[in-house]
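Progress note, project year one: complex with GDP-alpha-D-glucose.
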Amino acid sequence: MQRVLNVANRLPVTIGSTIKKSSGGLVAALEGVSNNHFELQSIGWPGPVDDTAKISELKQTLESDYGCIPVFLPDELIQGYYHGLSNSSLWPLLHYNRAYMNYSDSDWAAYCQVNELFADAILEIANDDDIVWVHDYHLFLLPSLLRKHKPHLKIGFFLHTPFPSSEVIRCHPQREALIRGVLGADLIGFHTFGYLRHFRSSALQLLGLESDMTEIQIGNHTASLGIFPIGINSASFEHELRTTDYQNTLAAFQQNWAGKRLVLSVERLDYSKGLLRRLSAIETFLAGTQNRDDVVFVFVSVPTRGEVKEYQLLRERIEREVGRINGLYASVQNSPIHFIHQSIPFTELCALYSMADVGLVTPLVDGMNLVAKEYLACQDDADPGVLVLSEFAGAAQELVNAIIVNPYNKVEVANAIDHALNMSLEERQQRMGYMKSRVMQYNADYWARSFIDELMQSNQLHNKPRNLLDDEQMITQALINHSNVAFFLDYDGTLREFEDKPDDAFPTAELHALLQQLNKAPIDVYIISGRSGETLQEWLGDYDFTLIAEHGNRYLAPGADAWVSLNPDNDFSWKEAVREVFSLYEGSTPGSSIEDKQSSVVWHYRLSDPVYGGWKANQLLSDMYSMLGNLPVEIHHGKRIVEASSMHVNKGRAVEYFMRRNDYDAVMCAGDDQTDEAMFRRPSSDNIVSIKVGEGDTQAANRVPDVKQFHLLLQRLTQLLKKKHNSNKAAEL
Ligand code: GDG
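Model obtained:
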């Protein structure tokens, strides 16, 4: 049976004088999956342990009796990792609350350390064929930490909260590390398409990655994105509603509130749940109704995160408001708001769900909101209640027959309460039917199974060049055992990292040091770039390299004065028409610019918004394809550029030309973008080594992850070549 290591911040047990299984939504969700299809093992923090002497005994019991692998966390880390970074900086931002974000470097250090501790615990037990499923924002860094040590492990990540707009998540001081961390997963799941879209555009904007709608490529790895709206454990509600305990509780509640209409809200006392706004809407409703003595608003507000200041203040404000509203609108017969600030047993919760005339669920922002679904599951089909649901809960995407409200509009919410309390039986039944059957069908079991199924199928189907960091020997053998060797090296993105402005990407001192080594090595070096001849000559003219400019349009031999054309065609009249179209796009895309080269015209959008820029680039490409007709022009979509260049020119032809002329025994071609693929598209042969630098699909046979690693590879190769050359010379003597 497939083993699934299910990793969440908390283990599904509570440790007190005895160990109790907790009954949270996630635990219940995964129980069904575990029984039927997978062997499930939970990994997480068991909560604070008072008697540290008992840790090893506890570990054994948790493993053998509960299938749980505990990650014990020292007290000093809990504050920073859990109350600090997770709940005081990530939670508020994920819920669009910039003002509540409190960040400190020491919290971040604790968060990193705890993510490492989780990684250690998993790596200790994980086999290559296990699935690891990581849950939620406490463990954003974990997927990449695992991937680093076990590249073939199947890793899934599910985010239970919303993912906000990139304008919000970018406020976090560690935004890049957080997103990079999650991208180590094979599959990243969200409740809604909106969250997926925000995550994708944040990854593009903050990390400068390229992606299509449901996949993000990072280095050699592809992370797939998917939508998996979580469901409830429907079976446990069906079961509970049949118990006598439940029947008795329901009867007692009905007697207690006889003759009253009940409006129910259930949640953790959290600012994202919109309690204060709801109280204000209730006040508006009470002020406008004739029958206020007939209605009771029951608030079940479970205490949460009492260690965080914002939650303490919120609780005080809510208690004050409840007191004030009750003072204003209570009568001898009724007190309108019944505020319960504690967790209630599951049976009581079900009885409340079942008897409530209205489920009032009005979060300001909520990943999904299971309460809305649980309320529906407990409703009687013959005489159902009405769900009033915030448009900002993920659940609103699915529960479209609820009365959908804007929780910030107190008059709208007050009217919705009134509408719900006065709705006809026929309309209530109509609305309830579809929603309830959906909630019962697309339940937690369905959710977990569909996520795991997709994760199992998420295969890295892309062309997989060999990672040179894993195996360098093959190429060193191919290159050093020959005497007549040439390196064809692209410049931007291969020898030099990108800069926002192309002119700033001149060779650094570190690159010059490397080029000097290359200059002394017993090889012919070609710098083959899309840049103009002038720029290449200015930056690299002092070396004994052949400079090939404008994607192979012309070259300058070492020590020569004049550039030589490789282009058999001298008609560039097409450039004018192309420039005209490009300038329309320059005008309508802020941050973009046009570069005019001898044999090509380039539209750069490196400084534009990546999503908008990418969209305009696609438009430009389709305009160009329809405009070019029989013109001798080729269009390339490179890294944040669209380039129109002469058809008779490409890097592959230039390499071909020099290989034929100089009859090389072995050749290395290295590059990073689409224009370099022309060099890689050559018949494969043992002594032609093609290397893609960085991410993205390629026809190259090898890959190194980035410019830095490529530099290191070049250093090692030149040393080996020099050594070999010297020993050959010594042998000749
Ligand atoms: C996060 C996301 C997403 C509440 N009071 C009592 C009680 N509960 C149970 C409910 C429900 C759960 O707690 C609350 O789940 P929600 O989904 O409403 O909200 P979060 O806790 O914020 O959960 C959320 C969820 O993760 C799943 O992905 O939907 O958006 O924020 O199951 O029944 N249970 C009992 N007594 C109570 O007093 N027994």
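The mean pLDDT is 91.
The chain has four domains: 1-68, 235-445, 472-570+648-729, 575-646.
No further modelling is planned for this target in the current period.
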